[in-house]
Structure formats: structure tokens, C-alpha cells
Amino acid sequence: AQTVTQSQPEMSVQEAETVTLSCTYDTSESNYYLFWYKQPPSRQMILVIRQEAYKQQNATENRFSVNFQKAAKSFSLKISDSQLGDTAMYFCATRDDKIIFGKGTRLHILP
Amino acid sequence: SAVISQKPSRDICQRGTSLTIQCQVDSQVTMMFWYRQQPGQSLTLIATANQGSEATYESGFVIDKFPISRPNLTFSTLTVSNMSPEDSSIYLCSVGNPHYEQYFGPGTRLTVT
Asked: What residues pair up with B75 in beta bridges, in sequence order?
């Protein structure tokens, strides 16, 4: 069965700093997809970044990048030059036959 | 990406009643999903709704309690039947694309008294 573990329930960093959110997962599939989603307070969930497991190159989207370690089943999200608008709940997710979400990391960006 | 709207955005309902939540998408999509999310918690998949077929329910969710309709490729409804306070939650509609990315609606915040 698929599982997704986010070991950091809550984090706080100063604005402009870099922060890394951890995620480990387990799946029996060889081809799967990994995602990070962001849910700002009282706002809609949005997709931040996606990684296909067969691609070795780490995905990047502007200030957001991932460190994908397939053998270790690790998929961390790095946010560079953090901004106040990055304050949100971040969910790691994996999909083989269906998408499974982790419990989330609540990230606070402090001014 | 898809633009998804949900109605109602929130509601307060009495125990024993039913509420139907509507989900409208601005483009045709094959796969739609319904999730439940306790505030500040993760998402739990209720069911997958594909147009033209019966919804597929996840373990712990049954059609009698959460009937789903999917009359066309842009619309779906989820009904929460015979509600109890334990059904108080946020209900989210989501659609998927061929890259397995999912896009979410704004959610319906349900409070059962």
C-alpha cells in the first residue's frame, strides 16, 4: 500500500530564508508521480510542483525545487527566498493507482 | 489547469438532514474526485466519479451515505445523507488531468448541529 509521511507537523522561518520540507513515501510501483500541494489559510489547494519517478532530474518551479531520492523514497521540497505568501499548509502526495496525501506541514513565514 | 467552483461554500445543517454539494468545472474532465478534510488535517478520498459509470468509493465510505451523481463531463454532486455531527468537515471537489495532476475546488465547509 502507498504511504506518505511528513515528519514535520509545523515549521517557522524568517522571510527571505530558505526552508526544506521533508517527505518520505512508500510504493510498490516502479512508475509513479510525486507532488507537493500548497493550501494557504482559508484558501484553495494548489499544485506547487510535480515529479515523475522515472525522471532523474529534480523538478523546479521558480523558487520551489525538489530533492528526489528514489532509492531512499524521499521527496523534499525546498523553498528559496521565502515570502510571506508562502505561509500555508504543504502536502506531499504520491500517485500510482490513486493519489495519497501526507498529513501536511504547516509552514509559517515570519516577517 | 481547471477552474472549479463549489456550492454552497458553507452550510450549517441539522442532524438527520441531507445536503447536496455541487461541483462545476470550466472544462470537460473525465475524472472527478470528492475528498473530505477536517480543518488543519489531511485529505481523505471519498470516491472517484467518472462520467457514465458508477462512482468508486473508498474503504469506509458507502453510496447510501454519500451518493454521487456525474451527469456530464463538467458537473458532479455529492450528497451527505442523514447527517450527524461527525460529518462536520470540509468537502472538496477535485479534477485530474492526463498528467495525474489534480486541481481543487474551494471546498464546502459543513457544520452539523
From this structure: B24, B72
| Grid cell of B72 as nine digits | 456530464
- The answer to whether A91 contacts B41, with C-beta atoms less than 8 Å apart, is no
Q: What length is written for chain A?
A: 111
Q: Would you call B99 and A50 a contact, using CB atoms and an 8 Å cutoff? A: yes
Helix H or strand E segment including B70: strand B68-72
Summarize pLDDT for B62-105 with one digit per residue, the tens: 999 999 999 999 999 999 999 999 999 999 999 988 778 889 99
Query: Nine-digit cell at A25?
Result: 513515501
Q: Which residues of A touch B (CB under 8 A)?
A: 33, 35, 43-47, 50, 89, 91, 95, 98-99, 101-104, 106
The pLDDT-based confidence of A2 (bands split at 50, 70, 90) is confident
Q: How far apart are CA A103 and CA A91, in angstroms?
A: 7
Strands B10-13 and B108-112: parallel
Q: How many CB pairs under 8 A join A and B?
A: 38
CA geometry: angle A32, A36, A37, nearest 5 deg: 125
Distance CA A61, CA A35 (A): 12
Looking at residue B113, what is its pLDDT?
96
